[in-house]
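Exercise 3.2. Students should predict the tertiary structure of the chain below and write it as structure tokens, then compare their answer with the key that follows.

Predict this chain's 3D structure.
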Amino acid sequence: MKLKKIASLALAGVMAVSMLAGCSTTTVNPEPNPNPGDDEPAVSGYSQMLYNHLTNAAKKKVTAQDSNDVNDALAAAMKYAAGNTIAGSYDDYIDGDTHVVNNSDWSNAADSLKNGANALINELAAENTLKDSIWQAFNVLDPDTTNYQRDNMNISMLFVADGLKSKEAVMDEVADLIDQQVQWLEDDYDLSGDIWQDNDGHSMNTDYEYTMSVAADTITLTADHGKSMTFVAVNIARV
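Answer key:
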């Protein structure tokens, strides 16, 4: 009887040790994330708003991308817009349309607005100049034998509109002004082969992508009957 009891206790001990050993080797796999991209930030704000107003053909050429640099550059440009500039432009030039500020498309824009447009260009080290029209600015991004290897080129343009107009309406009008040029952005470049250096005259193909970053803000003169002006910075970069 005593021997049987000892055997029972021994068997119970062996079973307990086996259970502990089994527990020590058990692992719990973490639950997989069903949507691994959900934590990535989505593009929002004015870059996406302008992108939404482009035609499908233009959307294929650019990627909307928010940029703190463009936000800061617009803030620097708006420092040139004093109250008299806004009031005068509102009375004399803001005719319900959205205008690009340069010496070609809107030559009679106030000098202070042109100074702001120039500041925007300088802040972003853009390749275009104040004298360039919209199509001339976009042409700066065309690859050629001198710049086809560069992936850091950009153009920056300043647009202004009546500040009482909705931002959606302003972006729609900006899209109308730039859409054709966005469609015509060169997405590849063939460098012709040199028969003296390459026996078969092979060419090298370089592919390009473009980002579009947009910032916008409005200044309202509450002391002057609420006259206001919305400023929009558009930056197109070849990457």
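Discussion points: The helical segments are 2-24, 46-52, 56-59, 68-78, 83-92, 111-123, 134-139, 167-183. The CA atoms of residues 215 and 233 lie 5 Å apart.
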